[in-house]
Design brief:
By secondary structure, this protein is α/β, with parallel strands linked by helices. It contains nine helices and eight strands. It has one domain: P-loop containing nucleotide triphosphate hydrolases (Rossmann fold, 3-Layer(aba) Sandwich). The chain has an eight-stranded mixed beta sheet, with helices on both faces. It is globular and about 50 Å long.
């Protein structure tokens, strides 16, 4: 099992979009994948048209309350979710004293049946982000190609380092920075990327995700990139991202094509 957290204290950088799309690709090629949503906004549920307050299935709050017999909701074959809602906010300012709640919950519940767990986090540097890092093997920071994003990336990296030092039995590896919503027509783009390449070197992911109407409209139609046409730019970029992540986490299966669409 590999667990990956997507973190950044800035909103609008594409955390949820990244989580939903790569998780959908992983599940479609055969990896049993669980999304854990720790964001009080519950945007993963909104994107996937899933109930934020499921009656039968468990949610992320149940996990943080260390309940037994966690039963994730099922989105499709191999894709599952522990959803979130505003009630999870009560954990956002709690300090991790006596150990991570999620670490304890992971030990209490059989999540080892999942090949991949992807965690969406709130746009803050808070206890919920610390909890995500506590159970992660890897973490990824999305950013927009803007000048102020350099400072935001540095802040997120520093927060992660400090959080990791303060939590016992955790040492997630930094996968790198993913550039989202890029527009190569902007005159500042190449200068910005050049600066990030200088600062981050190999920690800047090779794959970059373009700003497209398909991606922007995806949540409205509850569609992920696997529902897009095969020649879709967004679909191909997310395939490349999924491949790059698989290589970095030690799962070397190359995605060359997908089975028939889920929908």
């Amino acid at each position: 099992m590999k667990t990956i957290s997507i973190i950044c204290q800035k909103g609008g950088v594409g955390k949820t979009t990244t989580v939903v799309n790569v998780a959908s690709i992983f599940s479609t090629i055969g990896y049993k994948t669980l999304i854990i949503d720790l964001d009080p906004q519950g945007n993963v549920s909104t994107y996937l048209n899933y109930d934020k307050n499921p009656e039968k299935d468990s949610n992320a709050i149940d996990l943080l309350e260390k309940k037994n017999d966690i039963v994730p909701g099922k989105i499709s074959d191999n894709l599952y979710i522990l959803s979130s809602n505003i009630k999870i906010s009560k954990f956002n300012e709690e300090k991790i004293v006596g150990g991570s709640k999620l670490q304890q919950a992971f030990n209490m519940n059989n999540l080892e049946s999942f090949d991949l767990i992807i965690i969406d986090t709130p746009p803050t540097m808070s206890s919920l982000v610390q909890e995500a890092l506590a159970v992660s093997d890897f973490y990824l920071i999305p950013a927009k190609p803007e000048f102020l994003a350099v400072e935001g990336v540095a802040q997120a990296m520093n927060f992660a380092k400090q959080a990791i030092k303060s939590i016992q039995n955790t040492n997630p590896l930094f996968l790198g920075v993913l550039l989202n919503q890029i527009d190569k027509r902007r005159s500042s783009y190449l200068e910005f990327v050049s600066e990030l390449e200088y600062l981050l070197a190999e920690k800047l992911l090779t794959t970059k995700i373009s700003q497209t109407a398909e991606i922007a409209d995806g949540p409205f139609y509850a569609k992920t990139v696997i529902d897009f046409k095969e020649d879709s730019k967004s679909r191909n970029e997310y395939f490349d991202l999924a491949n790059e992540i698989l290589r970095k986490v030690g799962l070397h299966e190359e995605i060359t094509e997908l089975p028939d669409n889920r929908y």
